[in-house]
Amino acid sequence: MSNASAPAIGDAAVLADLERVVLWPGHCGHGQAAWPFAAQVLRRARRVAVIADPRVWPLASPALQRAADRAGCRIAAVYDGVRPNPSLDEVRAAAAAIRADRCDALVAIGGGSAIDTAKVAYATVFGGQADPADLLAPGNAWMAGAPQADDPLFLAVPTTAGTGSESSTAALVKDERGRKLMFRSARSRPGAVVLAPELTLGLPRAATAAGGFDALLHAMGALVNDCDAPVGAALAAESLVRALHAYPRVLATPDDADARAAMLMASYLAGVAIGMKRVDAVHGLCTPLEGRVDMAHAEVLAAIFDPIADHTARKAAASYARAARRCGLAGPDEDDAQAAGRLLDAIRRMRALGGLPDRLPPLALTRDDALALADQALLSPSTRLNPRALDRDDIAGLYLDIAARSQAAPSTVILPAP
Ligand SMILES: [Fe+2]
């Protein structure tokens, strides 16, 4: 019996209802299956375009070429001009490369910048848009749609562990004025992922620390927030447990491929979780600030974590406490405040291990500045899903607190637990 009122797969309102739609990601090959899996999925392709970070492309190209040879397809175009914090112009150049060579599949290799550029280029070309900016038009049907079986292959090979961009639905790209634009679509999420730890072995310590800390806060934010999406919560908890173990290992023994593989998996799982559940106010308040300070995403997250998490814990300790117990950080007999403190302290220990800042460099904000930032932060679903509800005045107050802390003398460094 047909039901004329039933929403179709791909209906924007349905996909936006995170709590009631389980948006599974595509398939993922890891460990010894990583490159054989790449060869298998590439059998769908004839002419492959690659969008890559220029630093890792020389390292990754032999393995990808072998996989393409086994699959019987050809690498027809390579765009390796992606830089950190990519712009719309880089997306346009990448999209032009895909179009010029009439490619029917896309491979993204690199960190969040390369994968985000590829996501938006994929949507532009295969979504039939003239320009990437057109994807942001309200009600863009392609962006709101669900993945279709005959969508062109999109394979991502993350090399930073990480932003989780390979498994999340979001991409951040700057416009001509330097503002960060959020492109969100389940359809431009890579349909296949290869986790190849050997490509992350040479990652510098600072990038390892920053990427890993971002993944930790994705996992924690998705686990504690108010979105009641049980599959996303389970994946966030698994990711957080793995990341808390893997992060110290990749920092202590960066040449250990097993540690790198563990961090890649934690980051991947966190990306899936945030695609299902979003994050919390630490991320929600971070994005507006990133346009004001010259710091990497993870550094801003680290610097604003304390005031936001402490403010949240004062009224919503139970959310943090549940997460702490679920991850084995707190015992069942500890009260909520104590258990919440264990989770926050674990994150602070990771921050100290990674050498990340606990405050911003001196930042001057007026109350009007703070209110303007609050208006931007409220646009993020992650802000609205914070375990403690935050209104405009609360958020402006947090920004002013963050600015006040940035002017104060450095605090005592919290030493990692032995
Ligand atoms: Fe992030």
UniProtKB/TrEMBL annotation:
Entry keywords, A to Z: Oxidoreductase
Pfam families: ADH_Fe_C, Fe-ADH
Domain of life (superkingdom): Bacteria
Domain Alcohol dehydrogenase iron-type/glycerol dehydrogenase GldA, residue spans: 33-197
Keyword Oxidoreductase: yes
Fe-containing alcohol dehydrogenase-like C-terminal domain sequence ranges: 208-400
Signal peptide: none
Segments traversing the membrane: none
InterPro entries associated with the record: ADH_Fe/GldA (IPR001670), ADH_Fe_C (IPR056798), Alcohol_dehydrogenase_Fe (IPR039697)
Family recorded in the similarity comment: Belongs to the iron-containing alcohol dehydrogenase family.
Protein name: Alcohol dehydrogenase
